[in-house]
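Weekly structure sync, notes
Attendees: PL (lead), two postdocs, one rotation student
Agenda item 3: pending single-chain targets
PL asked that the sequence for the first pending target be pasted directly into the notes so everyone works from the same version. It is reproduced below exactly as submitted, 125 residues in total.
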Amino acid sequence: MIAEGFGDQAPAASPSRLATALAKVEPLAYTRDATGSPVLLRDAGALARATTVASALGTSSADTRLKMPMCEEPDVVLGATTLPCVVRGLVVGRSLLHPPDGDVAGAVEAAAKVLRGSGEEEPSP
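Predicted structure, written out during the meeting:
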C-alpha cells in the first residue's frame, strides 16, 4: 500500500500518525513471480482483500481516503469498504450518494462522463 506525501517515510506512515492531515492510501495487491519480482494483481478478489486491509489501518478512518486502482469489476472492489474512494481523481462517496440537489442519477451520470473522458462516445442503451 502507498501512503502519499511522506517521501522516504512512506512505508512507516499510517493514517493514525497523520493527526489533522488527510490520508490517501492506495490498496494494491502484489505477489511475486518465479524470479522474485513483484507482480500487481488486478483481479477484483485480490484488490477487494487489499481494500479491506487498507480500510482498517489506523485508529480512525475519519480523514482517510482510498485511491482505487481501476479493474474489471469495480463494484466488487468498492463494495469492500465504506471509506470514500478516489478513482481517477474523482472522490466516490457521499458526493454521489447525497448530492446537494438530491439528483443521485444526475450526479452518477456526471461522474461517468468525467471518467469516460470528453472524446469518447456514450454507450448506447
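Discussion points:
- The chain has a mean pLDDT of 78.
- The first helix runs from residue 44 to 55.
Action: rotation student to compare against the earlier draft before next sync.
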